[in-house]
Amino acid sequence: MTHRDLALASRGNSFPAGVGSLGVTARVGTRAEAWRRPRLRSAVARWCRLLSQRYGNPRHGNRSNPLDELVYIILSTRTGEAVFCGIYRKLKKEFPSWDDVRGRSVAEFHRILAPGGLSSLKAYQLLAIFSALRAEFGRATLAPLRAMPDGEAEGFLTSLPGVGKKVAKCVLMYSLGRQVLPVDVHTHRVAVRLGLAAKRRPDTSQDLIEAQVPPELRYGFHVNAVAHGRAVCLPSKPMCGACVLRECCPYPKNGKRSER
Fold this sequence. Notes:
Layout: H1 3-9, E1 18-19, E2 25-26, H2 38-55, H3 66-76, H4 81-94, H5 105-113, H6 119-137, H7 150-158, H8 165-176, H9 185-194, H10 206-210, H11 218-231, H12 251-258
Antiparallel strand pairs: 1-2
Helix pairs in contact: 2-11, 3-4, 3-8, 5-6, 7-8, 9-11
């Protein structure tokens, strides 16, 4: 499927135009069902199959407990993987329960977070989240989200201090098994280069890109696109010759010219 085919497959609905890396706009439906279009669905399924064969659906260390996952994702912001994973392990050793982070232990919480980027901001954000959860549920937990439908659970998560849609979708996908698609910088870059409609930034493309990927393929698309974006589909000087998608990706032929 060519980039033009994808644009044609997505035409005729009322979503605002998304601009891809090729400088071409495409439109998708507001009902989160653009993925139902046969040609688009077929293309995405092919990409997901090739990426899964190459990367094997890695979990990237994400957690199965939703509050653990929320803490893990927040710690990862602007911090290298080795550093934030080390911080997370130290926190879990010191605080087996997030309810233990209160009173005199707050100073130790700050100390453990210090080596990471934006440590003070993250510490205050997490403390505010724990406080909000205690007020809502009587303890620091996100277990009640398991009984909520997707929209309600996402709405609750985004009501917590500093939690945006991408972080909320990570919690929903990794720890609650929901068929949503978090769009980080890697997922956004891979999607745009493949020709999916998107806006210029990942944070404004969450629902737009999700709407073009079939629900049962969203987990694999995300985790493998993250791996692919880190290893091959780099922000600058992507290794297109080594890419498993090179036969079906328009970027090597058209995209590089548009980025000059």
